[in-house]
Prior knowledge:
single chain; Arc Repressor Mutant, subunit A; six-stranded antiparallel sheet; DNA-binding transcription factor activity
Amino acid sequence: MGSEWVEHRVHPALRRYVATAVGYRQEGLAPGVHRGLPSPHLTFVVTLDEPLVVAAHPDPQQAPGRYDGLVGGLHTRPALIVHPGRQVGLQLALTPLGARALLGVPAGALAGLDVAVPDLLGARGAELVDRVRAATDWPGRFAAVEQVLLRGAHPHAAPAPEVAEAWRLTTAAGGRLRVREVADRVGWSDRHLGERFRAETGLTPKAAARVVRFDRARRALAARAGAGRALDLAGLAVAAGYADQAHLTREWRALSGLPPTGWLAAELGFVQDGTAAGAAGSGHDHL
């Protein structure tokens, strides 16, 4: 099995909107199904050869599909991606509050959905996919993405400051703050915050906190496994803010479809979770 994992530092003008940018190439895997897990970022993927085959989307009402380029919104159920044992592409993790600036829509418009890049961005999206796939090296591929996204960016498009602050508080606290506390801090009622927050991000404040907490926990677990350390699920549960190991396991099943150790057995080493390069927890969000 061969693998390549390339981390890219994005253009300064994009750093508010793109949390990570990676190129990946992995070959010689056993064909199988990968779980794209809930995370605090939207997924932006462009494949370099075979399309991405999504057998089940987070929204069960959405039909399976094949994508040369895909944007995935925030979600609370796993996506199931069928792979033939080889995958090559690049992926950006977009901040939900940057969706307006780069995609022209609030992240809430993409909640639970996977959308083809050209369907979302029109001719600009088709150009982006074509240019990435035509480039011959990683610098050229990332340059193509950045040039097209920057050309169509709307830097003055921003959500309500209260929503942005609520998202910052939720992520900074690792999903540990109660919704009431977040609402108090931004000066809104629980109900008003819930409505505005969901419309902007696609998640309720409570769901966002669950996703943030889960994301941190699964990255920590992957890092432990990748380093050959004891998994210590009880300790992980406490460190991540769960009541106990049973709570951690329930949430893991609800958000990934598998218990923690089952997820590790199925996914560890799969490139799109960022674990294969020994950078467990550093890379991937949706797919």
